[in-house]
Design goal:
The complex is a heterodimer of chains A (494) and B (494).
Chain A (H helix, E strand, L loop, with lengths): L8 H9 L5 H14 L6 E4 L1 H17 L9 E5 L26 H8 L3 E6 L38 H8 L5 E6 L5 H7 L2 E4 L19 E6 L2 H11 L29 E5 L9 H16 L3 E5 L7 H16 L17 H12 L2 H13 L6 H21 L5 E5 L15 H5 L6 H6 L3 E8 L5 E8 L4 H15 L8 H5 L1
Helix pairs in contact in A: 2-3, 5-6, 9-11, 9-12
Chain B lengths: L10 E4 L2 E14 L38 H13 L7 E2 L2 E4 L9 E4 L9 E6 L5 E13 L3 E3 L8 E3 L6 E7 L6 H18 L11 E10 L9 E6 L2 H20 L7 E6 L4 E7 L9 E2 L6 E2 L2 H9 L5 H12 L3 H8 L2 H11 L4 H19 L10 H12 L5 H14 L3 H7 L8 H14 L1 H9 L4 H11 L6 H11 L1 H4 L2
Parallel strand pairs in B: 12-13
Antiparallel strand pairs in B: 1-2, 2-10, 2-11, 3-16, 4-5, 4-15, 6-7, 7-10, 8-9, 11-12, 13-14
Helix pairs in contact in B: 1-4, 2-3, 5-6, 7-8, 7-9, 9-10, 12-14, 12-15, 14-15
Classes of the chains: A alpha/beta (494), B alpha+beta (494).
Chain lengths: 494, 494
């Protein structure tokens, strides 16, 4: 039998259906690889008992011939999704010991489809970061290393645990969340696929909130097809989330025709930013060339307000976060540090519970919403947001999708940018616009840097047109023929 | 009718001249709804602490609000009842502050775009003047929970049963000019809410509370600095608080001081207001639109359906009572002041002498209810029975005088008037021989008075009284009059 962990999710699904192996066997294989990969620190909580119990139930359904879309497929869950009875931390000390009495809509959908939970994946604290270095539970190490180097690299963030676990074949796929690029940037950096669906495509109910108007959950997996399968299971209307659209979910797998003939692909000129590494620009040009060669029309478009996006994002997201995180006050759940009175208890609890980056964003957010600053910051940022949205609407009058790089560079070393928040925030430069406009965006691995590290391309689509995004990505995936895998150095460490 | 501006209200005579009181009121009215504004939890009064709390109310991580359509309907109904502008688009905002009984760290309210805009309330003062009080706005918001400070020597407990309960905040213009007008405004507002069924108006249980803004100024001068007296929970207290506060402000100013804008508490035991916090200590609530909720959009049909189902409101009812029943403006005003009174009056007066019905209700019935401290809904004399008693008067079975006794017995026993009359032998004597015998006896016993009658025909009334006394009040006064006139014709000179 081949190594079950190196199968794609689609292949594993077919294997289970053909009864080539059982869900328990598949799960055990992944649990073994997880155990051997603890050096990566990808999981905050492993749930092997849970996983095996779910796998046994899946095998029962297989025996009955009553298979769900994800029957018996082991997944990792970003630890931002509330899972009933299982420690849920958001990688923050403030949620110390928190075991939710409820299950998020997304994970409930996955379990209903027969999927198996391997554990809860590490992330930046409250999903605030682009390197997975802000986790209370320690940084995640990228499975990738520069050619000939043993320097530890970041897996991207905030869904760094998800990216690392998928890339290192610790799970068939994982859930991520994306507020400013937290699915796409780590996917690019880790050489896997990840899609942030249209805002409102996937329910936010039961996902620890970072910035409510930007947060959106999506799948991360090793192939475009795997993402399509997972997205179908995750998505759908949820009356418990007022911002979740009541729109039918198409069969995304059927969209993966790789046919881009006549497709109009926009290249936004403002995304050519000074200081972007040459190899990123080259990759971008190569992607456009592949599309042109396959019969797509490449059209240069303008998104004139792009230069304000990052600034607007770092006002809107912290503003919402400062309010969303007010509930972590030590009163009802999670950490409580005793104080002499209620204010003292609040201050001690939040000082001890939140890490530096989270505190920084709460401060920024509180500041930009304050009387006297609201108009200059928050309101102006919202206006920029409207303009950015309009930029995209106008572009989509001329093109069907946009092609851009996903991130401004490959993975960097642990600690390299930790002391420079601005340089860290620049990682999101190509991705935040998509969140501000609420659009679907997907990253697909498209090549390696000179040092042998993965680089990704991003495809952006119209609202609720994930199908065209997936179709374009299915083509790029084939054209790029990205087959590189990280060397499993971590097994030796274990 | 007069609006606030340019009208002469009550005046406080200070040592330096007259002062005018200016009052504006914010009423928090709990929406009559079985479920909360953004969750399905119950709202019953007096339940076990924390027994009516959903995951949303407790602000657990990842929980999202979903608007309760019934509460929206109630707000629109109220707006229509206040003859107010209904805003087709309104927005829910977050009002951020830390307090243990506010689990999310923010209250969901409506700040810039309320659901209801400008409206008005007309109040009728005992002097016959009708005053128009402008309504600035009505918005929907969540109530907070309750902190219990008396359960533990050093800790406070929190009861979240009220957390998330729907409130309508109804803000008046500063159009009131006396404590009486302030109380009359709240009484009228409460009556309208009760007619509409959108709030039970129960101030003791806290389902209706008033924040009273008071300032003083020289007549005709610009508004003075106001103080807000928080959470006044009875009509009597509103009146007392205004009187105390206005006097206090006049004294401060006349002593050479200035009024600081501040929030004050009314101490009902001492009958005084006390400073709670100054404007400088006021919170910066950092309002911003709640990203978890879409703007609330109402379609015209929704509003018109509610408009079509509005009941007859106090002003319209009062006009009808005056027009159809010939009641005076004052009597009609009293009859419509509470929906229960109006219903009672209509039941009693149906097919009967409406003026007599109103007189009995305002006279004997109210006197009794006031003494017993009862609401009309708990009256021992049912509308049905009072009506039947009026029938007995009308058909001559009893006299008005006897009716008063019958009424007292009805109050005591709750019994049927016809039966009381029968059982106690109170039937009016119309038998002419019995009356004649009594008349003869009175004439015989009072020869001197008969002589007096020759020069003073108005003495006849005295004879009627004597005959009535002799018959135990049961004689028909009309018949007594006639018999007396006939028998004394020789004296009266025809």
């Amino acid at each position: 039998m081949t190594d079950l962990t190196s199968l794609s999710l689609a292949e594993a699904r077919d294997g289970i259906r053909a009864r080539a192996f059982s869900a328990v066997e598949l799960t055990q294989a992944h649990l073994r690889s997880m155990e051997a990969a603890r050096a990566l620190n990808a999981f905050i909580t492993e749930t092997p008992q849970h996983a095996l119990a779910m796998a046994r139930e899946a095998d029962g359904r297989v025996a009955e011939g009553n298979l769900g879309a994800l029957e018996g497929l082991p997944l990792g869950i970003k630890d931002l999704f509330c899972t009933r009875g299982v420690l849920t931390t958001a990688a923050s000390h403030i949620l110390h010991g928190f075991k939710p009495p409820y299950e998020s809509t997304v994970t409930a959908n996955l379990w209903r489809a027969g999927a198996v939970m391997l554990g809860k994946l590490n992330l930046d604290e409250f999903a605030m970061g682009s390197s997975n270095e802000t986790s209370y539970y320690g940084p995640v190490l990228s499975p990738w290393r520069r050619r000939g180097s043993n320097v530890d690299l970041v897996p991207g963030g905030s869904s760094g645990g998800s990216a690392a676990a998928v890339a290192a074949e610790l799970c068939l796929g994982a859930t991520g969340t994306d507020t400013g690029g937290s699915i796409r940037q780590p996917a690019a950096v880790a050489g896997i696929c990840g899609i942030k669906p249209t805002y409102g495509r996937v329910s936010r109910w039961g996902i620890v909130a970072f910035a409510s108007s930007l947060d959106q959950a999506g799948p991360m997996a090793r192939t475009v097809k795997d993402c399509a399968i997972l997205l179908k299971a995750m998505a759908g209307h949820d009356p418990k989330d007022s911002t979740c659209a009541n729109i039918g979910v198409p069969d995304y797998e059927k969209a993966l025709t790789r046919d881009v003939r006549g497709l109009r692909v926009g290249i936004p000129r403002e995304y050519r930013i000074d200081g972007t590494p040459v190899e990123i620009d080259a990759l971008w040009a190569r992607g456009a060339q592949w599309l042109r060669d396959a019969g797509a029309e490449i059209i240069e478009v303008s998104l004139p307000h792009t230069q304000y996006a990052l600034a607007a994002y770092y006002i809107v997201a912290p503003a919402e976060a400062s309010s969303n995180l007010a509930r972590y006050d030590g009163v009802r759940f999670g950490l409580r540090e005793a104080g002499s009175d209620i204010t003292d208890m609040y201050e001690k609890t939040r000082a001890a519970g939140f890490g530096r980056e989270v505190q920084r964003r709460i401060l920024i957010g509180t500041y930009v919403l304050s009387a006297g600053y609201y108009d200059a910051y928050y309101l102006k940022a919202q206006r920029v947001r409207s303009l950015i949205k309009r930029d995209f609407e106008q572009a989509f009058e001329k093109v069907d999708v946009l092609l851009t790089p996903t991130a401004p560079g490959p993975a960097f070393g642990i600690g390299e940018k930790s002391d420079d928040p601005i340089s860290m925030y620049l990682n999101d430069v190509f991705t935040v616009t998509v969140n501000l406009a609420g659009l679907p965006g997907m990253s697909v691995p498209a090549g390696l840097s000179a040092e042998g590290l993965p680089l990704g391309l991003q495809v952006i689509g119209r609202p609720f047109d994930e199908e065209t995004v997936l179709r374009t990505c299915s083509f790029l995936e084939e054209a790029a023929a990205f087959k590189a895998k990280p060397e499993a150095w971590w097994r030796a460490v274990a | 009718m007069s609006a606030g501006e340019g009208r002469n209200g009550a005046v406080i005579e200070g040592t330096t001249g007259p002062w005018e009181i200016v009052i504006g009121i914010e009423v928090h009215a709990q929406v009559s709804s079985r479920a909360k504004l953004f969750s399905g939890a119950a709202t019953a009064f007096g339940a076990e602490p924390n027994s009516q709390v959903s995951l949303v109310d407790a602000a657990m991580p990842g929980m999202l609000p979903v608007i309760n359509e019934y509460c929206v309907e109630q707000a629109v109904r109220t707006g229509l009842g206040l003859k107010a502008q209904i805003n087709r688009v309104s927005v829910f905002d977050r009002k951020n502050y830390f307090y243990p009984d506010l689990p999310a760290g923010y209250q969901i309210s409506q700040y810039k775009s309320p659901i209801v805009g400008e409206g008005e309330i007309l109040i009728d003062m005992p002097g016959g003047e009708t005053i128009r009080v402008g309504i600035e706005r009505l918005h929907l918001e969540q109530d907070a929970g309750k902190s219990l400070h008396d359960q533990h020597p050093s800790l406070s407990y929190v009861d979240l049963n009220r957390a998330g309960v729907a409130l309508m905040e109804i803000v008046s213009r500063p159009d009131m000019r006396s404590a009486e007008e302030a109380a009359a405004y709240v009484r009228k507002l409460r009556a309208i809410l009760r007619y509409l069924g959108t709030c039970d108006g129960n101030m003791e249980q806290g389902s209706m509370r008033a924040d009273v803004n008071v300032s003083v100024r020289r007549p005709g001068a610009p508004y003075g600095t106001r103080c807000e007296i928080k959470n006044v929970n009875s009509l009597r207290f509103i009146q007392q608080a205004v009187e105390y506060e206005a006097r206090r402000q006049v004294d401060v100013i006349e002593a050479g001081g200035t009024i600081r804008q501040e929030t004050r508490l009314f101490d009902s035991r001492k009958g005084e207001t006390r400073s709670m916090r100054s404007k400088e200590e006021a919170h910066d609530y950092r309002y911003f639109p709640d990203p978890d909720l879409l703007p609330l959009e109402l379609d015209l049909a929704f509003i018109e359906t509610i408009r079509a189902s509005l009941p007859e409101l106090p002003d319209a009812k009062r006009a009808r009572f005056m027009r159809d029943f010939g009641l005076s403006a004052y009597d009609a005003g009293v009859m419509v002041s509470e929906k229960e009174t109006a219903d009672y009056f209509e039941a009693v007066s149906k097919g009967r002498d409406a003026k007599a019905a109103a007189n009995w209700i305002m006279g004997d019935l109210f006197a009794h209810l006031n003494k017993a401290g009862l609401e009309i809904s708990a009256s021992p004399v049912s509308a049905d029975n009072l009506g039947r008693m009026l029938d007995l008067i009308a058909d001559g079975t009893i006299s008005g005088r006897i009716a008063k006794d019958v009424f007292v017995i009805m109050v005591e026993t709750g019994g049927d008037p016809a039966r009381i009359v029968d059982e106690r032998g109170l039937r009016q004597v119309t038998d002419s021989s019995a009356i004649e015998a009594a008349v003869d006896a009175v004439i015989a016993e009072n020869a001197a008075k008969v002589e007096e009658l020759k020069t003073k025909p108005t003495m006849l009334g005295w004879f009627v009284g004597q005959v009535m006394k002799k018959t135990g009040g049961k004689a028909n006064p009309q018949a007594v009059n006639e018999v007396l006139k006939a028998k004394l014709a020789h004296v009266l000179g025809g």
